[in-house]
Amino acid sequence: MAEGGIAKIDLVLQELGPMGKFQVIQCLVFFLSYLHDAYQFFTYIFIGQAVSHTCAPPNNDSDWIIPELHGTSDNFTTVHYDKCNIIVIKNISDELMISRYPCVYGMKYDGDYYRSFVSEFDLVCEHASLPALSQTVINGGLGLGCIIVPSLSDRFGRKRLLMIAQMFMLSGGILAGLSPTYLVFLLARCITGFSAAGVGLTAVTAGIEVFPSTHRKFASGFGSTLWWSICIMSIVPWAYLLRDYSWRILQLAVCGSFSITILQLVIVNSLTYGALYLMTDILATSLYTGLFLNALVEGASCLLIVVTVDRFGRKKSLAGFHAVTGLSLIISSICFSFQELPALQIVATVFSLLGKFGVSASFNTLFMYTPEIFPTNVSVDVVLMLVMSVQSRYALWAPGALFGTSNLIALILLRFLPETMGKELPQTVEDVKPKNQALKS
């Protein structure tokens, strides 16, 4: 609305009751959608686990592809079945002849191969990069959804779009659990990512726009953060109880969250946030403990948000959160580089969790901050979550160094954003122009 005819939305909401039963119930209903989002995204940690493996030996029906393995055994030939090679060592006249062959007889996995899609689809050795591709695909679908969904949300309404997005996410989750090939699995993940944009973007916007500015911190900063962390923690008992079953069972089980329910960020936060969750396996000896600690730390950050965002303002709070995140991750990466010192690995884990605490506070403060900068009809457009899959097993120090530096850069860029504490949500682009002019002056 243009200046002079601006509806005082905050005054109306205050008169109706800033924390009335209607607002609270509506917000809770929208936030229930987080459960489906969290389950579909973070079950990857369990269904995509790396599985120990070696090359399988030939059986009686195998073709004689490697003759040395089928002939009569002798004292001069030694065979080693490595992770990705069959190594044949011959000692002839005190001269060693070493031959390497690929795993032509298939793979042998420790335990049941069906517990992870990595082992079921043989995504190892030369195909070792393909498991991470599934996360890239789901985030690609998410990015595409963030481009398309906003205009649909304003045209058809939040509730209708949320219902449709939930149906598509359910379809994608079921298709992933029943996928006969990895290509079909990737297609299902893309559908899931695209529909997640409709769920996350719609839910967070609709959930907080019913509150006046003085109470948005409780809806977005506290309520949203706490509920999101609870959703992630609730994955752990599911995954633990189904740990001895096929990964397909867990994938299909989490689709049941749709019966309970009827995110997104600017790039630096989503990269750091997603990467720290995907590094769960190096933050604790157990995947279950690691994911639970990550979510627990995130839940604790909601208390910090409530205390800081109105006392110090959005900008200063975000600056502090990014500073804590950046410095903690850099210190963590330095400690991780000294793997021969166990004490430093404990210190690295502590600082990694502290970084998770900081980025969670920043992540969820932005849910409140972004709609206060941009008008309602474009606010959903500017929230984009892009989670990066990090190959941390090769360089434990690299993720912390990269994301720590990114957060320190974000700290500098915050200087160019306006303060929105105590301001009404802008309704049109015209309402945003005075803020931009104030920044330029």
Automatic annotation (TrEMBL):
Its main location: membrane. GO terms for cellular component: membrane. InterPro entries: MFS_dom, MFS_sugar_transport-like, MFS_trans_sf, Sugar_transporter_CS. This is Major facilitator superfamily (MFS) profile domain-containing protein. The keyword Transmembrane helix applies. It is a multi-pass membrane protein. Residues 26-441 form the Major facilitator superfamily (MFS) profile domain. Coiled coil: none annotated. It comes from the Eukaryota. Keywords: Membrane, Transmembrane, Transmembrane helix. The chain crosses the membrane at residues 161-185, 225-242, 249-267, 287-307, 319-339, 345-366, 396-417. It is found in: Membrane. PANTHER family: SOLUTE CARRIER FAMILY 22 MEMBER (PTHR24064). GO terms for molecular function: transmembrane transporter activity. It comes from Pomacea canaliculata.
